[in-house]
Each structure stands twice: as structure tokens, then as C-alpha cells.
Write a structure and sequence with these properties.
499 residues, mainly alpha, Hypothetical protein af1432, 2 domains
Amino acid sequence: MKSVRTKNDMSNFLKFKNKLKGILFLNGERKKNNKVLRYLPGIILGLVTVLFVTFLFPFHQLPESQVVTMAPWQAILPFFIRFVLILLVFLFFLIFLYLLKKEVLESFSQLLIIAILVVTEMALGYFLVLQLGFSYYLIPITLGSMLLTILLGYEVGLIYSFLIGFLLEIVFNFSFNLDFISIVAGSVATFSVRGVKERYKFYRPMLYNSLSYLVMIYLFEVLKGSQAQAILEQCGYGILNGFFSTFLAMGLLPIFEYLFDITTDITLLELSDLNRPVLKRLALEAPGTYHHSIVVGNLAEAAAKALNANPLLARVGAYYHDIGKIEKPEYFVENQMGAKSKHEKLSPSMSALILESHVKEGAELAQKEHLPKKLTDLIKEHHGTTLMAYFYKKALDQGIPEAQESEYRYPGPKPRSKEAAILMLADAVEAASRTLEEPKPARIMSLIKKIIMDKFEQGELEECELTLKDLHIIEESFLPILIGVFHPRIDYPELVEES
């Protein structure tokens, strides 16, 4: 009886744990059929953040005689008004976020990043200004704007600049100059890091941030009638802030990427280095697969650029999509170099298992190499549940009675993003194009259309966001790349020397 009860208790605990995990969206899945549950964690997180900001900063100290005669509601009223104002600022922030970047509102982890940055910047403001007595021009306002632009997009970084500006204005007794400088400096920081894809290029936002602080602080201090020495001192604080905020963003960026499993363009560009050990292994041990991956990368990048997807993710994903073939390169036709196929001595089912295994082994190798989850997902999804038609037909021709179609399909999942679908199509088109005897433009285009239509009719594109118009754009973007691959060359005549 004891063991039965223990099993039941454990079962109930696991059910509760999974339910709680689903509500908090920590598993990344969204409950689309329940809007309340979908946004509940974000609402709770927002309220906690509002309360923290409300009570972190004290009001001016009143004389003791006045405090004694105050009614309880008079002591609470300033905090209540501040709470309402901060709540309104957050509501406007969420409304703009809903209009410009709705997917952020549906991700608890991304909302948590924003909350952490708000709390961090407000806490730094409290510590630097109220505890140490420094100028509020030393508050690293641009830190959050830069990090959010790189991690979540420039729309989030820009809205955040307004959010942090209004919050600082409220808690520092409606200091308009701090609010205005925060918005301008944050906006400049947002656009200065928007195109940064290499870490060494952070010198640009560093200079822009310092310059924006210098100009804005100088203008406000002159308008306030400050002394020349005071203006110089405050401008120095602003320049120091511009440099310090950028250095801090550079240091915190890898931590946020790791903790929240976000893959930035900076990381993708680092992973695109063909001298990385796993890609060098691929080039040496599976040279045919390596060349195939490079061409697929060019195809995928061109299509992703045409569709306004992420061309860098598509290209880097193509480089790594077949790394699982490193384990058994000789079983894949592109690496056989005209040698006799090893599949001739194997049963069709065993051949199918070997082909299927390169997806699983690729995902395992990706984890071993600490590749981001986005790239691991592309490795898993680039074949979807496609039928290995050659070996299935071979099994049927041999009259194998137990041959089932499901045993000759890749395990999936099907592509769930534009980049994964583009990679699937580019992979299939590049492989099929090698079978063309006379690769003329018209034949190449006909082959592209046939491959894409086959994938569409087989339902492999059901779970991604591609439309029929998108498929046509992909066809058009693939064609010039393949024409370039199969371009003709002039047959140079040999020179015959006269005796």
C-alpha cells in the first residue's frame, strides 16, 4: 500500500510541476487558447517591478512636528500617487510593445529580461545618487537600450528608452532634463548598436553615447545658468557614463545570451567562421558534405534576405545542418567520390537508419559543441518528416512484406520557422540539382519549382509561416545562385608548336 501511495504522490507532484511550468511559460510553449494564462506571468512580473520602483526611492524628509500631526492617509498618499503614475508609464510601454513587438509580451523570459534591466538601472540610480551622492548623469541609462536592441530588437530598445526616462523623471521629483536626456541618449544608443555584428565594433556606440550625453548635458546646464566649472564637471560625468555603459553592455551581453538562450547576430557571425574545429572536421572528413553546405548556405541566405527573414541565421544554420554526417561520411553519396556505394550491401531499412541517424548525431554534436538552440533546431528540422523515397522504393521492389512508409521517414519535427523551411528547400534543391545532365537556366528553374511544390504537397511546410507568395520569391532567389554554380566555361584550345 505504501509503494502505491508513494507512486500516486509522485504522479500528482509531477502533474502539478508540469502545470506550473506551463503557466509560467518556462518551457517556451504558449497556451494560445487561454489569453489570461498566456499573459498572467507578465502581469504579475510587471506589478512586482512597479512596486519595487515605487518604494525604492524615498520622498523628501518632513519636519518631525509635521509628521506627528499627519493623518495615515497623508503619509500613504504620495506613494499611492507615485504608484499610479509608474503603473500608467508601464501600461503605455506594454501598449506600444503590443503594437510593435507582440511576441515579446507572450514570452515570460523576454519580459523577465526587461524587468531585470529596469530594476538594475533604478537600483543603480538609487545607489549612485542617493547613497553615494554622485550626479544623476552617471546613471547608465543607455545600458538597457543597447542590450534590448541587440537581444530583442531595436523596437524594444527604443520603447525602453522612453520607459526608463519617464521612470527616472518620476522618482527624481520630475526632473525634466534627466527625462529628456535619457530619451535622447537611449534612442541614440539604440540606433548606434542596431547594425553592430562584431564585438570590436562597440567603439561606435561608445563614441555616439558619449557625444549625445555631452551635447544634451551642455545644452541643459547652459539653460539652467550653471557655472562654467559645473558645466564642465557634469559634461565629464556624461562622457564617462557613455564609455562605462557601453563596456558594461559588452560584458553583460554574453551572460544574458547564455541565461535566456538568445542567439544574437554577433554570436552567429562568430559561429560563421569556417575555421571553427567542427567545420574544419567536416571539410577534412566529409569534403563533399562541406561543399554542399557552403552552397546551401548561399541559397538559404539569398532566400532569407528576399523574405526579410534572418539571412545570417539561415546561412550559419546551413553550415552546420549536416555535421552529423561526420560520423559516417562514406555512407553519403556526396562523399563517395565515385567509389562503390556501401548501401549496396545493406538492407533498405538499415540504409534508412543510417541516413536518419545523421540528424540525431548532428543534434548531439551541436550540444557537445555548445551551439545555440536555434542552430540545433535547424539541424533537427531541416529534413522534417520527409520520406526517404529511394530506399522505400528499393524495399518495395525487393518485396519486403514488413516495409512500412513510417519506417522510411525522417523523425522530424517539421520546420517551425521561416529559416528552417528555407534551409529544407535549399538543401533539397542543391542535392537534386547535382542530377541535372545539362543544367541550363530553364531546367534549373523547372527543378526548383518541382522540389518546392513536392515539399508543399507533402505537408512539410505546414508548421512554418511561409505563404505561396513566399515560395515564389524563394524560387526566384534560388535561380541566380544555382546558375552561378553551374556556369559554363570556355574550352580553351591547345596551342600546337610549329616544328
